[in-house]
Amino acid sequence: MNKNLYKKFFAGAVNIFALSLFVVLGVITFNANAYAATPIIQSAKITGPNNVTIYFSEPVITKISDYTTFSGSLAGRNLTAISGSGTASISLTFDGNAFPGNASGSLNIGTQTISISDSSPFTTGYVNVLDGQPPVVSSITISSNGVNNSFASAGSYITVSWSANEPLTNSMLKIAGNTVSTGGSGTGPYSANYTITGNEPTPLPISGTFSDYVGNTGSFAMTLDNTKTTSSGTYNLTSTANTPGGLKIGDKIIFTLTPNTPKPGASVSGSYNEQPLTWTTSNSGTTFTAIYTVQSGDPDRASPLQINGVIITDSNGFASAPISGNDVKKTIVASLPMVAETVPVPSMVTTATPSYSFTSSKAGSINYYGDCSSQTKNAVPGLNTIVFNPLPNGYHSNCYVSVTDSAGNISNRGTVNSFTVSANGNTTTGYTPDTPNQTSTATSYRFSNPLNIGSTGTDVRELQKRLTNEGYYSGPITGYYGSLTQIAVKKYQAAHGLEQLGNVGPGTRSALNK
Prior knowledge:
The chain is mostly beta strands. It has helices at about 5-35, 460-470, 485-495, 505-514; strands spanning about 40-50, 50-55, 60, 65-70, 80-85, 90-95, 105-110, 115, 125-130, 135-145, 155-165, 170-175, 180, 190-195, 205-210, 215-225, 235-240, 245, 250-260, 265-270, 270, 275, 290-295, 310-315, 330, 340-345, 350, 355-360, 365-370, 380, 380-385, 395, 400-405, 415, 420. Helix content is about 15%, strand content about 35%.
């Protein structure tokens, strides 16, 4: 083949290749323009407490009614809102409680979701919704093997424990920049120990990273105050019951706990006499106070009861050893005395001084009410027999006794049964009046009961005699507190600088008994 023939052959071959290429490219161009791509789902994930995010391959126009048939963690919920229409990222909001950390499910998308470029519809239908939420730490605690839970001393170790809202993998902890070996599985607890060297920064940095089983990552970071620990502190626990005496129902003790250094944000727990106390502070942890109030039914204490077992927990969660006080000197008398009749006065007696028996649950002083009184002033636990002071002949139905214990608690009133006195030498009814000159020169009689209009009995007779001797009373000695006696008492009160009330109260009794 000569040179010219070769050139012609080569040119022809090039022309044939170019024509073929044109045909092929024309076909490709034609097919690309004839079949526009429909939108496809790149991913669908639960991305928030009530949110699902769907990522399309291109911007789409969509509406809430196009999402149906929810299953898995989406089942039973209603779609309440949709956002992002006109973009490739569509966010769906559901009602109900927050999705769990590892939630997943599925849904259907209808043909109303279309491409924004050429209006081609989404045609896949069924869509898997994966877990897209990062795992979150649900709890974290820090403890130490140091004395009193100290975490600042070299050689001791701290233990960091945490749990998550879903199963974790690849969990890692760093303390002061050092990676610490971690143990645990599932949702936890996970834990790690770190030995204190004494060279750590202050505050101590602690951080953790982890991921769930579909690759979502989470983390936490915190600092630990390793300079202020309750274990290194001392405390002073005092009370307002630091003088001898008894505490009755309603009395209070104020306890004060004072740390050697302020403990802002700390809390205190502790009880006294089996009663839980509420501790408060209003000065940034400088002092903590609690009030114990004696209540009916609280245990009695024959000797002073010291407070102990009080614990202060600082803002980092580290608790002190139990703290005690030693200054309480008062005893507690919280139970009321109880009296009950045992041997009643016969319904008819021929003596002006009948006897009466009752029981008392506690020792104390006896209180008399009504017509009856006695020279017996103190009760003993158990049986007590008393002899009433002389009573006038007649019917007596208003007598009572009670007992006041050493703390001032007053018992119930024990009723003395009604009885009639019919003694020789007494009138059968009313009171035996003494003649005006029938007076007593003795001033040793002790007045112990309140007297006023209507009072009767020996106290009134002795009062009338006394007032007659001193020139304030000129009526008959009847044993009945009437208007004449009241006027005489007012004169006596005026002469002794007392308020002129006309009845015999504590101040008047004190003056009479001097």
